[in-house]
Amino acid sequence: MEVSPEAEFRDFVAGRAHVLLRAAYALAGDRHAAEDLVQSALAKAFARWRRISDPEPYVRKMIYNEFVSSRRIQRRRPEIVVAQLPDRWDGARLESETVLRLRLREALLLLPPRQRAVLVLRYLEDLTLAETAEVLSCRAGTVASQTSRALLKLRELVPDLDWSASFAGGQR
């Protein structure tokens, strides 16, 4: 018995939506924005479902492209700053590891979208240099340089994090 494309799509979403949402959240830094990215990508994928041979990389690429595009649009709009973040976090109330994670998350959100996408793909999604380049439609050398720049910036923003334990020194 042949499975209908609609049933195939439902099975894909049921089995992979949580992974796609996790990656989108790491990019966007906001659950609602992540859900919007995934929903938009899945809606577009459904319209092309019969022509997609390998859906997960296809949908993942759509998420990253949509994220980068949305950031370009946001950059053109003036940003209204409501409050400034403190220079140092109050570590007295929280465990130091939690504080560092929060600072790292904030630092990630300060990175340009392309650099953040590279780190998410390489370290959260555990893709190789070549796989990351394919998803982002660029050369492996570009991924390597973006990774290097992003990690350097993160080290500047969160100097008290033990980087040797966090990212294996960028040697992926």
TrEMBL record:
Keyword Transcription set for record: yes
Chain ranges of the RNA polymerase sigma factor 70 region 4 type domain: 102-154
Residues of the RNA polymerase sigma-70 region domain: 19-76
Keywords associated with the record: DNA-binding, DNA-directed RNA polymerase, Sigma factor, Transcription, Transcription regulation
UniProt GO BP: DNA-templated transcription initiation
InterPro entries, sorted: RNA_pol_sigma-70-like, RNA_pol_sigma-70_dom, RNA_pol_sigma-E_actinobac, RNA_pol_sigma70_r2, RNA_pol_sigma70_r4_t2, RNA_pol_sigma_r2, RNA_pol_sigma_r3/r4-like, WH-like_DNA-bd_sf
Pfam families: Sigma70_r2, Sigma70_r4_2
Source superkingdom: Bacteria
GO cellular component, as recorded: DNA-directed RNA polymerase complex
Keyword Nucleotide-binding appears in the UniProt entry: no
One example GO MF annotation: sigma factor activity
Family: Belongs to the sigma-70 factor family. ECF subfamily.
NCBIfam families per record: SigE-fam_strep (TIGR02983), sigma70-ECF (TIGR02937)
Name of this protein: DNA-directed RNA polymerase sigma-70 factor
Source species of the chain: Rugosimonospora africana
Lineage: Bacteria, Bacillati, Actinomycetota, Actinomycetes, Micromonosporales
